[in-house]
């Protein structure tokens, strides 16, 4: 570091230290310092003079002895402490390595280190402080009494007025007027007189400061009009017109104001227009158009006056596109119009609208093509012209009844000649898309499709899809995209397409397109998408078509699981058509081949559904041979016996299973004990089951407790339930049972809280709360809790049943959404839901819901 | 004698110049002499209430920065610290506080007990 220069300089003579930098000492006088000894208090000195030397010596000696003792004691304690504890490093030595790394810290990082502050109960302190401040502000009477708000507002108003008068003379901007006008417009609903008065003053000062600005006049006139002061408004605008003669806007405003009460004043308007045109005629096309409009409104049957006006206007303004358009509009005969357009194009060759009109008016034929060629020459990058060309082509091909493909080829060839400016961004593609939609609207679908194919790359099309409005075109775009190799199995596009097909009230045509498309592409789809689309097909009751498509897919699939799934889907459709024999045939086929347990289960279910128990038993035995580890089959067999009302056989079947190789199956233990009529034997079975499955015997304990409850053995029941709860506190089923059998209201509420907490707000508990409210006749609350339960576990059928029950009870009109939701979700669990499983095996979940509720 | 590495300020004017000289660094001034009870530059004795054998004061951009050592005197440091790392920490803390525009900085260490001993 450089040595500062001042170190080697001499101080200026007579310098007083500190003055040079404005130092005056400390702002706080904090202490007297340790050298205060020199300024010993007087009292001590007095004592000293009084005292003898002996006494002081004694005192010193005593102090010495005591301090020695103190020292001894403190060192002894320290030594003992040091002996007992390992030496603790001081913080400074402890973090020495970390400190060394601090050299690498940048300036900013260093500055941004957080400050060490008091963090204890920080939030509470802040809150208290905040509250205190607020209280002070609220109760402080000095703030309220001293300020007269009204006075303040008035003063400000006066100041503002002065300000406006003085300032706006120099700075005048159009924006100010527009702002003011806008404010007036937005407030048009409720006109506050105070506001009006204020605005009027402001506008008047505007006009005073710059009378040649038309905006001020217009604004003031509109303000008067808002206040329904039409006379005043007219007067003001008239003044304005006299002041600012060379402005079309103010004249237009004048005409508009005069036309408010219509017919009788038309004449006046006409004179006004004539006046205005006298001043502004050469440049204002708006005024000319206004004049034409007025003439037409006057009910003038004589077209000549209008055409005369137009001709005059065009003489002065030959390059105005708008005027030419008017001219064409008022031309009666087609030939004349074409002539006018031909002329117009000479003057305004860059106008797309004029060219389009010209070409469209011409008869179909070589002349039209020639015009088109000219137009394209003039406007080589106009998309409209190219689209028009394609449309002509499409129209030319139509009567020949050629195939769509060949027409398409021709149009695409035309479009390929269009020189793309190579700025392939989304905006550019979107403008083409608009063209395509326009063509589609004008009934040229092939042109529209070709435009999409030629100009919009796939990735952009994907983005732009939601912007297409036309149904046909959108459908085409989806299919076009999906047919591309890289998108066929893109689930995002498929989902969007499906949503599109399902949307709208009348979606039959869209669905028809969808079916056709599915049939076309089913063999190229991957598994997930084909399953999804088939599901959609079945949803809309198109069984025949769906069967056809499934068969087509089956022919081309050799993969095992997919085949199985397709078969099952097919069986589902066949069952809904009640073609049971066909189903049986397919099942037999599938079983004959090597097959999974699920197929067996489905077949058995199917047979039970048809009440064909003997056959079901046979299949069950077959399945057990093939899949000896599957407990489901044992349960199925038992169920079949139950249906055949051979309870003994069912019981025997369960007990056999449990005592052989299904000793780990909780459900089998429960079933076997349930079918045991003798309470003692049942107890034995439960205990055995619990012994064999010590780890997860919660349900078994619960069932045992229930059995005791049924037998009226209440004390035993309580003990069992409590032990179950102790070791399986997370099981909602046990809590439910406990809640159901608790009578006292208070106790119940506590239990509910506890249960919800322990089971992490399980849906079953929520439902139990709902049922509890239902029993107490509080249906509104019950509905809410059932709804919560549905949200917590969508697959739980019981909560849906209760939700439906509650909404019916409450007289809610709209219960359809519940049914729809249930159909969509297809719940599968719940005691009540599965209670009559076989009856509703093949019906819609919503039907099941209604009948169970 | 002052330190070998640190410059020795001969008069009150030099002290003032030193305080004014640096705009982006903390100025640490140590009043006193090792061998003498009297201050070498007595000009500030009254203004800064200097009556200890040694006093250290901190300045940043000609502003006297106070530091709370829990000794009761926030204006200056009139005791000796035997650990050099501690001193470095204190100076760092004061510098950081001063950079943030604070007039009073809380020392990272508490000297109320140490001084009593």
From TrEMBL, chain A:
Any single GO BP term: spliceosomal tri-snRNP complex assembly
Localization in the cell: Nucleus
Chain ranges of the PRP1 splicing factor N-terminal domain: 11-122
One of the record's GO cellular component terms: U4/U6 x U5 tri-snRNP complex
Pfam families documented for this protein: HAT_PRP39_N, PRP1_N
Gene3D superfamilies linked: Tetratricopeptide repeat domain
Keyword Nucleus: yes
Domain of life where this protein originates: Eukaryota
Keyword field: Nucleus, Repeat
InterPro entries for this protein: HAT, PRP1_N, Syf1-like, TPR-like_helical_dom_sf
SMART domains the UniProt entry points to: HAT
Protein name per its UniProtKB record: PRP1 splicing factor N-terminal domain-containing protein
Annotated organism of origin: Saccharomycodes ludwigii
Automatic annotation (TrEMBL), chain B:
Transmembrane annotation, as ranges: none
Pfam families: DIM1
Any single biological process term in GO: mRNA splicing, via spliceosome
SUPFAM superfamilies registered for this protein in UniProt: Thioredoxin-like
Protein keywords: mRNA processing, mRNA splicing, Nucleus
Location of this chain's protein in the cell: Nucleus
Keyword Nucleus: yes
InterPro entries tied to this protein: Dim1, Thioredoxin-like_sf
UniProt record similarity statement: Belongs to the DIM1 family.
Protein name: Probable Spliceosomal protein DIB1
Species: Saccharomycodes ludwigii
């Amino acid at each position: 570091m450089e040595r500062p220069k001042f170190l080697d300089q001499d101080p200026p003579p007579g310098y007083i230290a500190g003055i040079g930098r404005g130092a005056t000492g400390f702002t706080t006088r904090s202490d007297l310092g340790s050298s205060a000894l020199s300024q010993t208090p007087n009292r001590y000195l007095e004592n000293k003079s009084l005292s003898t030397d002996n006494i002081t010596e004694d005192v010193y000696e005593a102090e010495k002895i005591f301090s020695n003792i103190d020292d001894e004691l403190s060192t002894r304690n320290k030594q003992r402490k040091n002996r007992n504890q390992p030496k603790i490093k001081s913080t400074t030595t402890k973090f020495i390595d970390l400190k060394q790394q601090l050299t690498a810290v940048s300036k900013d990082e260093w500055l941004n280190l957080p400050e060490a502050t008091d963090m204890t109960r920080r939030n509470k302190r802040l809150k208290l402080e905040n509250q205190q401040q607020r209280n002070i502000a609220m109760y402080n009477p000095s703030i309220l009494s001293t300020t007269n708000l009204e006075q303040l507002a008035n003063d400000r108003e006066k100041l503002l007025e002065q300000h406006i008068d003085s300032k706006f003379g120099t700075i005048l901007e159009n924006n100010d007027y527009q702002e003011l006008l806008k404010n007036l417009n937005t407030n048009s609903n409720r006109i506050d007189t105070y506001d009006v008065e204020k605005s009027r003053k402001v506008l008047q000062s505007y006009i005073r400061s710059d009378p040649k600005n038309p905006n001020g006049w217009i604004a003031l006139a509109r303000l008067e009009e808002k206040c329904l002061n039409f006379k005043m408004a007219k007067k003001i605008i008239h003044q304005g017109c006299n002041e600012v003669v060379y402005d079309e806007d103010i004249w237009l405003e004048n005409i508009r104001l005069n036309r408010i009460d219509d017919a009788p004043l038309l004449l006046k308007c006409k004179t006004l227009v004539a006046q205005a045109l006298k001043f502004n005629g050469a440049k204002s096309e708006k005024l000319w158009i206004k004049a034409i409009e007025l003439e037409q409104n006057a009910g003038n049957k004589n077209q000549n006056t209008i055409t005369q006006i137009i001709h005059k206007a065009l003489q002065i303004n030959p390059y105005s596109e708008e005027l030419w358009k008017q001219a064409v509009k008022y031309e009666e005969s087609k030939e004349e119009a074409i002539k006018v357009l031909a002329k117009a194009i000479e003057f305004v060759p860059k106008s797309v609208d004029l060219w389009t009109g010209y070409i469209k008016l011409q008869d179909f034929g070589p002349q039209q093509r020639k015009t088109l060629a000219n137009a394209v020459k003039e406007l080589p990058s106009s998309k409209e012209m190219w689209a028009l060309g394609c449309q002509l082509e499409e129209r030319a091909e139509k009567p020949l009844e050629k195939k769509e493909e060949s027409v398409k080829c021709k149009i695409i060839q035309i479009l390929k000649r269009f020189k793309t400016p190579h700025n392939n961004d989304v905006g550019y593609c979107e403008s083409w898309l608009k063209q395509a939609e326009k063509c589609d609207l004008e009934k040229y679908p092939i042109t529209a499709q070709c435009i999409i194919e030629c100009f919009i790359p796939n990735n952009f099309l994907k983005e732009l899809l939601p912007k297409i409005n036309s149904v046909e075109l959108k459908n085409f775009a989806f299919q076009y995209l999906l047919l591309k190799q890289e998108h066929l199995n893109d689930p995002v596009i498929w989902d969007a397409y499906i949503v599109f097909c399902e949307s709208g009230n009348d979606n039959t045509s869209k669905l028809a397109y969808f079916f056709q498309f599915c049939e076309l592409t089913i063999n190229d789809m991957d598994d997930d998408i084909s399953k999804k689309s088939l599901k959609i097909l079945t949803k809309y009751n198109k069984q025949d078509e769906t069967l056809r498509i499934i068969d087509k897919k089956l022919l081309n699939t050799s993969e095992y699981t997919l085949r199985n799934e397709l078969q099952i889907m097919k069986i589902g459709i066949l069952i809904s058509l009640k073609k049971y024999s066909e189903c049986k045939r397919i099942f037999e086929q599938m079983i004959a081949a090597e097959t999974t347990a699920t197929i067996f289960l489905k077949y058995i279910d199917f047979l039970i559904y048809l009440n064909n128990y003997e056959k079901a038993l046979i299949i069950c035995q077959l399945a057990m041979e093939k899949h000896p580890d599957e407990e489901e089959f044992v349960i199925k067999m038992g169920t079949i016996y139950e249906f055949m009302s051979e309870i003994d056989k069912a019981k025997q079947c369960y007990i056999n299973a449990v005592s052989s190789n299904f000793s780990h199956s909780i459900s089998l233990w429960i079933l076997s004990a349930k079918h045991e009529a003798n309470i003692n034997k049942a107890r034995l079975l439960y205990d055995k089951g619990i012994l064999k499955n010590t780890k997860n015997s919660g349900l078994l304990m619960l069932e045992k407790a229930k059995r005791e409850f049924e037998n009226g053995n209440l004390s035993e029941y309580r003990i069992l339930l409590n032990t179950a709860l102790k070791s399986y506190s997370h099981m909602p089923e046990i809590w439910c049972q406990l809640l159901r059998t608790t009578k006292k209201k208070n106790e119940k509420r506590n239990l509910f809280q506890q249960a919800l907490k322990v089971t992490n707000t399980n849906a079953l508990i929520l439902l139990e709360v709902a049922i509890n409210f239902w029993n107490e006749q509080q249906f509104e609350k019950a509905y809410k809790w059932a709804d919560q339960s549905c949200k917590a576990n969508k697959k739980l059928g019981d909560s849906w049943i209760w939700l439906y029950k509650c909404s019916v009870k409450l007289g809610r009109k709209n219960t359809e959404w519940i049914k729809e939701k249930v159909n969509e979700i297809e719940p599968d669990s719940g005691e009540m839901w599965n209670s009559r499983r076989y009856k509703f095996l093949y019906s819609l979940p919503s039907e099941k819901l209604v009948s169970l509720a | 004698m002052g330190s070998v590495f640190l410059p020795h300020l001969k008069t009150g004017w030099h002290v003032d110049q030193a305080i004014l000289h640096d705009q982006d660094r903390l100025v640490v001034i140590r009043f006193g002499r090792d061998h003498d009870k009297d201050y070498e530059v007595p000009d500030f004795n009254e203004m800064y209430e200097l009556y200890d054998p040694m006093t250290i004061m901190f300045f940043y951009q000609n502003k006297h920065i106070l530091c709370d050592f829990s000794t009761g005197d926030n204006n200056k440091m009139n005791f000796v610290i035997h650990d050099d790392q501690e001193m470095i920490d204190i100076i760092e803390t004061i510098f950081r506080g001063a950079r943030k525009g604070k007039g009073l900085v809380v020392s990272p260490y508490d000297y109320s007990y140490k001084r009593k001993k």
